[in-house]
User: Fold Transient receptor potential cation channel, subfamily M, member 4a from Oncorhynchus kisutch.
Amino acid sequence: MTGCVCVYVCVFMCVSLSLSAPVSNGALCQCGGERETHGSIATRDYFGAAIVSQWDSSQHSSEYPTDAFGELEFAEAGRRHSHFLRLSCDTTPQMVYTLMTAHWGVPSPNLVVSVVGGEGCEKVKTWVREVLRQGLVRAAQSTGAWIVTGGLREGVSHCVGEAVRDHAAAASSLSQKKVIAVGVAPWGLVHNRQQLINAQGSFPARYYVQNTSRDSCCLDNNYQAFLLVDDGSVGRRGGEMVFRAKMEDYISHQRTGIWGSGSIDVPVLCMLISGDAAMLERVDLSLKKATPWLVLNGSGPAADLICELLDALSAGPMSPPSPQPEVEGSEKTSAELRDRARERVRRHFPAKADLEKLVDRALSIYKNRDLITVFHGEQESSDDFDTVLLKALVRASKRVSSDASEYTEELKLAVAWNRVDIAKSELFNGDIQWKYEDLEDSMTDALINDKPQFIRLFNENGLNILDYLTYRHLEVLYRSLSDSSLAFTLLQRLLTERQGLAICSPKEAVALKSPQNPMSPLSGPSSVKELSLYEVSRLLWDILGDVCEPFYYSLLGLDQSASTRRALKQVNKLLQGDCSYREQSCLYPWASLFIWAVLQNRSEMAVYFWEMAGESVHSALAGCKILRELSKLESETETKLSMKELAQKFENLALDVFSECYQSSESRSFTLLIRQSPVWGKATCLQMATSADARHFFSHDGVQSLLSQIWWGDMKRSTKVWKLVLSFFLPPLIYTNLISFREHEEEVRSEEVPLGRDTESLDGGDATMLSLSDIMQTEEDVEEYAALRDNLKSAPSSNPKRPFVLLRWREFWFAPVTSFLGNVLMYFLFLILFAYILLLDFKPPPPHGPSTLEFVLYFWVFTMVCEEIRQTFFRGNTTLYQRMKLYIEDMWNKCDITAISLFALGMCCRMFPWSYEFGRAVLAVDYMVFTLRLIHIFAIHKQLGPKIIIVEKMMKDIFFFLFFLAVWLLAYGVANQALLYSYDPRPGWIFRRVFYRPYLHIFGQIPIHEMDADKLDEGIECTNNATLVEAGAEPCMSTDHNWLVVILLVIFLLVTNILLVNLLIAMFSHTFSKVQEHSDNYWKFQRYNLIVEYHSRPCLAPPFILISHLHLIIKRHIRKIPSTKIKHFVLEIHGREASRLNTWEAIQKENILFAQNKREREKDSERLKRTSVKVDNVLKQMAEIRDHDRRLRMLETELEYCSSALSWMTEALSQSNLVKTTRPPPALRGKVAYSLPYDTGYMYDLFLWKVASYLSSHGI
Assistant:
């Protein structure tokens, strides 16, 4: 900015016209500087040796690049640095404003309060200090305002600085950033300004403040930024006023909000405190630019004059445009007003010579009185100062924009300042009937600028979210994302990808450019370049994965199975058209806003939208999933932590709501877990919780109860395992009472529903759904139900009851626990068979082998392969790529692929003599892999499962241990080999001595006879001949540095056996203690995956599983019979049943929120807040009582004066002969209660007028 910002420097002035010539004897120029510092030659063509009558900054000074800018450090101030800049009075405000907001990092203002007056050594009144401290700074903090003053340690500027300092000491760091104090001071008046001069910039410039108790012209250290305006003068005031006025006018045309996204311009308010006669010109010029003013009555001459003018001149009209016959009367009225104005100007400024000029200024100010608001500081409380500011700005905006509603403008200001308390008390108190059109812009402003309290307020006072949130509005909200957010970066990346395919073919381009196909700004190519819902859908699909269907695909007319490139072309073609979908109302508005808020990590707003959205448990789990996925992509640590905290908060909310639902109705809560959500792409709560890694949610008893119910099928959960094993080998036992089965809820319900009305309400009960009689509200419903009942009676049963034998057979063998037990038993048989073949029956290659049992083993593995193929390609309705991706992501599926691949490799190799032994070795290793598969099988066990989780976590610690161990093994092994053997080129022996032997040293196997020279075995044949060594001879061990070998061995054993091993033990202990607390949650979470796996598996285990596969092929693909087992985990409900379930869930959520709010209100901090509010109200009432008492005392004083006057007049009249009385004067009969008159002065004047009339009528 150095080359752009200039300053004025006075270069020449005649000595004879020096303002201080009589005192300085011609040493000073009229600019205020010493003449010796000026150049003797003019730098402009119109300068010369001629005498100039009046010094002018624009003519008698030159501009140079600024030489004072950077950061300012106040000596011994102990606070952060301030920014400063020396600039000329002609510098454009746009350049300075951009410098402050973009380069200095000063937050853009929602309000600018320019405090003027009270400069110099003028003493500031106490109540004015209180207004600045309690009113102005607090209002600035609540609205995010800039406070602009002179910035010097004098007068009002110093008071504002002290108020900002006190606020910073008591407020949080976030509140401190909202109060920005900017000093605009004349450069020539600043004390010690030479300390700031540095042509290269000062970072920082050390500034020493003058140590004096009185006010001085030093810069105040409580300001965040200083603009030092240079007009070439020295020691003069007012040189900055022109630039300051232009700066205020420029800011008043900027938009509020993030990146100027607000609905109103930045309000600018000038605040007049005291002031001299010259201040009238400043006020008049600002009023002509429609800048509102707030005048503190009683603060000083200029402010008091303006307040008196408003009161005194308001009695008569101010030069109205009257018809011609009334011109004479109008001139008479104007003359009277001018006389009254002259009288008041003379009273406040008696010594001023240009009285008529001041009167003209005063009358010009009075013409713009609508822009002036008077604050009576001695009568009004400073606590209401922010409300006064709001009223002043609303009054000005109403005058400027006559067609705008006063309340709408006031609402926009309240939203811009984020003052929901003012909006509640002044605008939404029931007196105003708000319409949707009045709240639309403010709602958008509140959404974009993160003001959830206003969103709640608008929603409660007439804003219909269904009318507001169209898809066009939703796209606008996504386009308003901050460019520093992660969601903005991801969306822009997807937008760039779509724009790469947005180039139309030549025929399409000609068609688009033809006059028959006009395009609006939103339907033409510009719409293609803007962010659309397609990018949002792609982003959500990338984040949520395959757990749910893509969002907005049906709205955009896209097919889920279509390729990305094809979808991009369809979207570009759609956006080049009329885009009619944008005018449609959003189908799920609160859920869409919830996603929008979660993507931006806006905690309070996201929680409110979650409260308003339906499907509370599902929405909370979805928010948890989105935030945890975004936290993995976020690079900033603070944002990452906040995302994780908010994700945990949503998981806790889902857990709380589901816990309340489970306590209300167990069966309904089960339905809640497995029903498909139309809002979240037909995903279930269990699927979303699994994807979100919500372990705490899975650890809830309700979730585990559902899983246990699915796990046991129709059998009771109390069934012993030995009974299952016995029934597995002796199937006829299932028809006895050995195993207990649950009664069918469907049969019980079908018998109970026709008998009478279900007494269960929406907020409790045990039934999954209510009876039909509960939902019949009209006669049509009753008739429809009667017709349906008749049809059911007449029609044959579509689902006939199965025979008992078949039914019990299915109940036993189709239970997941039976499938699991069968797989475990058969897997043990498989491992026994595999081990028997490897150890006892592994025949030579053909034609002598393999044996019959080995062929059985091959067939067994083949059935396993068939099952893995079924799990991969015949599950769900997703694409082939998604199925394979989902299969590969599971760790144990990778283990299965490894085991099967090794088995296939070993089986192929053992068939040939040349690879027979290699194949046997591969199969031996493969047996280990198959055996490790047992860990996954036993993860279902309640005691073994958590321990397996702990072992998995400890495996990570072993990798860190092996890394440190490998470093020491390499270091010690290489050094030991180099010291013991000077030359040994055999690779196998090098590897053994470098890695294998040092590793055995850790466990105590130390060959002393091969390392210590004193313990060498004699008689060992060795040689030092390199040729013989290369031929295979044993090299001799070197004994030259044997002492060093022993020392290295001691150090190696010390580090590995003591340091590293104990480090590993400590890591294991830490991991165990950390995981042990949550191992149960981990186990319950993995239990779900295991139950889902065996629930989807056929009832028969390998090798008999082929029978089940053939049965499934016939049933699903030939007979087209859908599966009924899938309903155990995925349930699709519609219509009234879904509506009633959502209503019931919403009621439970409201109960939870009510309980949370109640607990919040009962906290000590909230009680203290309420007590503080009550104490403040009491103090206000006491202050009003004191004020009433003061007024009563004044009335009593006036009454006493009136009584004395009346007594004097009565006594005078009684002593004279003018009045003859017929009766004696009345006497006071004790103390009599009386009521004080409302205006004693008026009554007294009325009495004197009547007495005077009486006396005059009698000629007295």
